[in-house]
Specification:
Blueprint lengths: L14 E2 L2 E2 L12 E3 L1 H4 L4 H17 L2 E5 L5 H15 L3 H5 L11 E3 L12 H10 L5 E5 L20 H26 L17 E7 L15 E4 L5 E6 L5 E4 L6 E3 L6 E6 L1 H6 L9 E3 L5 E2 L5 E2 L3 E8 L6 E2 L14 E2 H12 L2
Parallel strand pairs: 3-4
Antiparallel strand pairs: 1-2, 4-12, 5-6, 6-7, 7-16, 8-13, 9-12, 9-16, 10-11, 10-13, 14-15, 17-18
Helix pairs in contact: 2-6, 3-6
Length: about 350
């Protein structure tokens, strides 16, 4: 259920005209903070349309927004972060028994270095990148729990009390927010508010818990090394919940420079994925982003240690049976042929993991 307000225990940030503040060289690149209460609780169709237009405008320009007053309670977010942290503190042998096995499932535990996110689709190139500069993170992937063929990999209740139910509840909460944001996009594209409803109602999403352990700075000195390499996301939208540490950077599509997406209290970072960009004929922008290490604490004359970081990403997808083809009002000539959602997502995942 959507209720209350979010408080993700993040540091307050400085605002100027309700935009995240960047350096002067990035003055033309802004990630706006959008008050979603003006859409959810709109007193008129005009007010709802104004907010929808704000969202679509931002997704056309930067592909990213900060969403405030989105309706997810602070208690729910904090308890989900807590259960996530408890899971990653489990012994390696316990987590390894839950290992991710198949891109068609996309469920289970992914140990440090197993995934290498990149824009490449070449398995050999990705393998070389993974060998040279693996992503320094571990994740837990959770999908729909009622699938008959693909099952979530849950730790035993005695090992991780309350973990399963907390994640199942959060999955539903994030799906509901996804529906509302997609309705705002539909309205902003003049498609009719409920255009996407029957194309996203099967909840074919991925809840990803992420843990970035402390890392010695010497391990981050390889060329191309990052906590998570530059990439775009696969689906419609990504809902990102950050802790206070930060590290997310977004590429300015006009200059190629990466700029920080600093955690902002009471907001969720939301970005357009590749399938939504394709669906919209690139009217909406899927933007490259990465996670870099924050400033390190010096532990010797030649070595530093970065702080641990936690985040939660909810990767929203269309129904896996849905055909993604050029939307109305998004150009007269389609740039891409129609594609099946499930085939596309599985194909991207298959080359990302070992």
């Amino acid at each position: 259920m959507l209720h209350g307000r979010l408080s993700v225990f993040v540091r307050p940030a400085v605002f100027k005209r309700q935009f995240a503040s960047f350096s002067p060289t990035n003055a033309s690149f802004n990630i706006p903070v959008i008050n979603f209460a003006k859409y959810r609780l709109a007193s008129s169709a005009e007010e709802k349309k104004r907010t929808a237009d704000e969202i679509v405008s931002a997704f056309k320009e930067s592909g990213f927004i900060y969403l405030s007053n989105h309706g997810i309670s602070s208690h729910e977010v904090k308890s989900t972060f807590q259960k996530s942290a408890e899971f990653f503190k489990l012994p390696s042998e316990t987590k390894d028994k839950l290992a991710w096995e198949d891109p068609r499932s996309n469920r289970g535990y992914v140990a440090i270095g197993r995934e290498r996110v990149t824009q490449s689709a070449d398995p050999k190139e990705i393998a070389a990148l993974r060998e040279k500069a693996p992503d320094f993170k571990e994740t837990m992937e959770i999908g729909r729990d009622w699938d008959s063929e693909w099952k979530n990999q849950w730790p035993a209740e005695t090992v991780a009390p309350g973990f399963k139910q907390r994640m199942l509840d959060f999955y539903e909460t994030c799906h509901e927010l996804h529906v509302h944001v997609m309705r705002s996009i539909a309205l902003g594209l003049d498609l009719g508010e409920h255009f996407f409803d029957n194309k996203i109602d099967e909840k074919c999403h991925n809840l990803r818990l992420l843990s970035y352990p402390p890392v010695k700075t010497n391990l981050l000195k390889n060329e191309g090394q990052a906590r998570a390499g530059a990439h775009s996301d696969y689906g419609t939208l990504t809902l990102l919940f950050q802790d206070t540490v930060g590290g997310l950077e977004v590429q300015n599509p006009h200059t190629g420079e990466f700029v920080p997406a600093t955690p902002i209290e009471d907001t969720i970072v939301i970005n357009v994925g590749d399938l939504l960009a394709r669906w919209s004929n690139d009217v909406l922008r899927s933007t490259l982003h990465r996670v870099v290490a924050p400033p390190a604490e010096k532990i010797s004359e030649s070595e530093g240690l970065t702080p641990a970081r936690q985040s939660i990403a909810f990767f929203c997808n269309p129904n896996f049976s849905a055909e993604v083809a050029c939307l109305p009002n998004c150009g007269d000539v389609a740039k891409y042929p129609p594609i099946n959602t499930g085939d596309y997502i599985v194909g991207r995942l298959a080359v990302t993991y070992t």
